[in-house]
Design a protein that fits this description.
Layout (H helix, E strand, L loop, with lengths): L1 E5 L3 H4 L3 H9 L10 E5 L2 E5 L4 E5 L5 E6 L2 E6 L4 H22 L8 E5 L5 H16 L1 E6 L12 E7 L2 E7 L5
Helix pairs in contact: 3-4
Length: 175
Amino acid sequence: MVRYAVLSFRPRLGQQLPILRAALEQLEPRAAGEMVTLPFGASTLTLAPDELLVESDALAGYAVAQAGGVQVALDTTINADLRREGLARDLVRAVQAARKNAGLALADRIALQLDRAGDLVQVVAEWGDYIQSETLAGTLALSAPNADAYGVLSFCRFVCLRGFAICASSGGRSH
């Protein structure tokens, strides 16, 4: 929705200001910074860019910004693909935090077990290579996280992320 506000016309137009407002309501949406010519009674009225304030409201699901006569709208809807990408990135962040808390060296490889539930199956199918690369996971398994599956471990951290269980481990057979 576009709104127009008239700047500095009250003294010049006085009683005719309602006519100007009615003409602005009929005006097609336009960018700020343009000259505007309106029908005004029996004649026309031209407004300079500094005499007319053009404001627009964002549509639901969009973020809008404008400057210098240019308006940009960004779709802020989070679809299933973006949600899975976000989960993959959150997973990487959580595993990196577990690695740091365990005192692992940057080059230490880990084994990563993810709860085989919900979106994680599809997340691993789409983002598994990224997750392994970013976390230095030599293995990435979808199963109930179980520290015993990896024998003697130098560290094992269980993390809950968005309701999913994650086990990041190092040592024993994970190298």
